[in-house]
Model the fold of this input.
Amino acid sequence: MAGRNHLFIPGPTNTPHSVLSAMHLPMEDHRSPIFPKLLKPILEDLKKVFGTETGQCFIFPATGTAGWEVALTNCLNPGDKVLIYRIGQFAHLWIEMAKKLGFDVEVHEIEWGKGIPVDHLEARLKQDTQHEIKAVLATYNETSTGVTTDIPGIRNALDAANHPALLFVDGVSAIASIKFDMDAWGVDGTISGSQKGFMLPAGLAILAFSAKALKASETAKCPRGFLSLQDQINSNKDGYTPYTASSPMLHGLRASLDLLFEEGLENVYARHHRLAEGVRRAVAAWGLKICAVPGVESDTVTAILVPEDKDAREVISTAYNKYNISLGAGLAQLSGKVFRIGHIGDMNDVSLLGAIAGVEMALLDNGIAIQPGSGVAAAIEYYRTTA
Done:
């Protein structure tokens, strides 16, 4: 098929040419005297992206999933109770990991499409007068449902209950795309990955921890080896890593950070909101609904419900095989019920208009009754009047 594949999934995202070029270089000595000139500034600049001046950032040659494990095993003790709301597939996977690692996992089931209920959380924390809950695990942006949760509200709930639990946030599909202010929001551990807002291939778990979390890590008893924060701390202070670094990925991350700062983080957040709103208006023009309830819609991914008598997997297959467009699939209980449009990373108005047009054709081909051009027209009107 002529032309390239058009990637509109919520990760991996499109990688800019300047980032790809930065990664295309000969292998280098990661123990050389000049390596700290690459690593140290990256670790400092990441603090700006996470919104922390008092915390510390880390890079593991891994994925966001490994980042979940880093937070749990470095800051908690075996058998500690953690509280989490199952709001989607990625929250579910974090739950399953915590169980496998031997933690006492308190799970609250929430209808997929909704965020974490802050009032319920506050009430539960107030019940925990013995402070048995050692950490609250929150999925900031649930990629499977296209839902963004109120992290400042969660911090307010912890404060209102005067509860000392650590607050860990999965920000994999949010960091560098949706506003995040780690210090102001009182977050203790934030997990991200290279393949989303950082616009890189998968392969780096990028994290930030508060002074409180790092203090907890000094006495935490969970076994860890490759994913040890202390090993990173010992090496990072001199500008090195405790094991072989992925130098090309670090050079790519340097180029990605430069792009983000050149655009300006607030502008990056505003761009993602505009792009997402254009997609949402297109969906409304089609007469379809999104999975997220009003008020919690994600600015990085939209999960779109197909009519009950249709199969979203057929829409995704048609989009890929006939129009060379990659859309996100529905996961777990949403399989066949939704398809997802990722609008994260290296995207602009015209990119999303192409996605919307391709989706319209795939919808029509699968007998879903929409007015041809309606979604494109709605998005065009929004984009051109808000540019």
